[in-house]
Specification:
heterodimer; A: alpha/beta; Rossmann fold; 6-stranded mixed β-sheet; B: mainly alpha; ABC transporter involved in vitamin B12 uptake, BtuC
């Protein structure tokens, strides 16, 4: 079974700034994401996805630095669904098997232990019966479960998730939340970009809130309460 | 009767050589074509086949009508055009069609101009292929290219799948450079196969044996392995039947093989089990 307990890993952001299409969208962001669940929230265009990609090493920093993301093999990254060509003729099992890349490389066979890991991940996500189905024939909820299965197979101590619950059905949402809680209990660092403040308050103790003013980082209850005051003070 | 029609032509040495060469390419080229179609790079293949023509002609100018000189020239030109096409794709962010058209029209014009200036080159053979052109040297070229392409594809298979499907994932796990290398190596294999086919099939038809079976195979399986298998079977059959057609109807080999492969493609679009007209009608009547 998956479930190595991960040691003390954390992601530390020091005064990070990022550009998107030459425009500074994030500025002066400092935060520490330790083991457990943390959220990145903020209005559309506030730079949530850009920041997550920067933490994942996929987007250059304009200034500042990030500590803890140096080894990309320790990072699991869940992009927004639109980034993947769903028409690619591949079975779900083969898709999830690509999550073993950091351990198996480009040519060697997938060892039995890895196949078992994949099978276990499918059972956890409730998609064991879909293993042989082409990815083109999955609903969006099923596909998101498959993406999570690949993350489980990757087995990384840090998980970076970009809007993991967008356009999934309620049953899938609860399966995915259970997985986030399992990762939390295993001591992994989980950082998710999220819209839904009720969801954040319920499950994510820490929030980084991006907006027009300086970024706020801290306990979710306090940070998200600030946002309600913010539009008034800006007006 | 059937024997005369199907077997007799292959009692001739030149037909056997052409058959062996085309069957070898049929094993190696269509799997590359499957990846090209999945990656929506069919147009790139088109650019490549026109692109190698000036190289082949220049090779002939330097080395005479030696298959190795012409092949080397074609390979070099193919690599140049592949790099150029990649640069155009990147610079136009995917709106590459007009840039591609410019490149392949220019290459075709330059190639034809160079080839006509060179005595001894039969332009029609160069463009459309000739069964008689498959001498022992050409057969060795085709077989070597096919072997290299098969081994090469086997080595990069998993990387190519990942790079085609989810390049962001490769970058996220710190393998972005490996992804670029997989892509570059894949394009090199494509160029090799196009060059390998030019003697028998002609520079204009060479890509056809790669692409037509591949796009037909999309209608036979929803799996990558199934599509690759189907494309190879279609290519093997098209090569054999096409060479017979070429022999009996006195047609150049390239167009004859492509006519058969094209017929299979049309039939697949109409009747194949996946995403065909028949499958759509069946689905609509079920609703």
């Amino acid at each position: 079974m998956v479930g190595c307990v991960v040691g003390a890993v954390s992601l530390v952001l020091h005064d990070v700034a990022c550009r998107h299409r030459h425009k500074l969208v994030i500025e002066g962001v400092s935060a520490t994401f330790g083991p457990g669940l943390s959220a990145i929230a903020g209005a559309n265009g506030a730079g949530k996805t850009t920041l997550l990609r920067a933490i994942a090493g996929l987007h250059p920093l304009a200034s500042g630095r990030v500590a803890g993301n140096e080894n990309p093999a320790l990072l699991g990254f869940l992009p927004q669904r639109t980034d993947i060509d769903r028409r690619f003729p591949l079975s779900c099992r083969d898709f999830a098997a690509l999550g073993t890349w950091s351990r198996t490389g480009a040519v060697s066979a997938i060892p039995v232990a890895e196949s078992e890991r994949i099978a276990a991940a499918f059972i956890r996500m409730g998609i064991a019966d879909l293993a042989d189905r082409p990815i083109a024939r999955l609903s969006s909820g099923q596909f998101q479960r498959l993406m999570f299965a690949r993350l489980i197979v990757q087995d990384t101590p840090i998980m970076l998730l970009d809007e993991p619950f967008t356009a999934v059905d309620a049953a899938t949402e609860s399966v995915l939340i259970d997985q986030l809680l399992a990762w939390r209990d295993e001591g992994r660092v989980v950082v998710a970009v999220l819209h839904d403040h009720d969801m954040i308050r319920a499950f994510f103790p820490h929030t980084l809130l991006l907006g027009r003013g300086p970024a706020e980082f801290g306990a979710s209850g306090g940070v998200l309460a600030v946002e309600h005051r913010f539009p008034r003070s800006a007006a | 009767m059937l024997y005369t029609l199907l077997i007799d032509p292959f009692t001739l040495g030149f037909m056997r050589r052409a058959l062996a060469g085309c069957l070898a390419l049929s094993l190696a080229a269509p799997p590359l074509g499957v990846f090209l179609t999945i990656r929506r790079m069919s147009l790139t293949a088109d650019v490549l086949q026109h692109g190698i023509l000036p190289g082949v002609a220049i090779g002939a100018i330097f080395g005479g009508l030696s298959i190795w000189w012409m092949g080397a020239g074609g390979l070099l030109a193919g690599v140049v055009v592949a790099v150029l096409a990649a640069a155009i794709s990147r610079a136009t962010e995917g709106r590459e069609d007009s840039g591609f058209a410019g490149v392949y029209l220019l290459a075709l014009a330059a190639g034809v101009a160079l080839a006509t200036r060179q005595r001894g080159i039969d332009l029609a053979h160069l463009l459309f292929g000739s069964v008689l052109a498959v001498d022992n040297a050409a057969l060795v070229l085709m077989a070597s290219v096919a072997s290299l392409a098969l081994i090469g594809l086997a080595l990069i298979w998993r990387g190519l799948v990942l790079e085609s499907l989810d390049p962001l994932f490769l970058r996220a796990i710190g393998q972005g450079r490996a992804g670029v290398a997989f892509h570059a190596f894949f394009m090199l294999l494509v160029v090799l196969c196009v060059v390998g086919g030019f003697a028998a099939l002609g520079t204009l038809m060479s890509v056809g044996l790669m692409m037509l079976p591949a796009i037909a195979a999309r209608h036979w399986s929803a799996r990558l392995s199934g599509q690759v298998g189907a494309s190879v079977v279609i290519a093997l059959a098209s090569s054999t039947l096409g060479l017979l057609l070429s022999f009996h109807a006195n047609l150049p080999a390239g167009p004859a093989i492509l006519l058969v492969a094209g017929g299979v493609w049309l039939a697949s679009v109409a009747f194949g089990p996946e995403e065909s007209v028949r499958a759509r009608i069946a689905m609509r009547s079920r609703d």
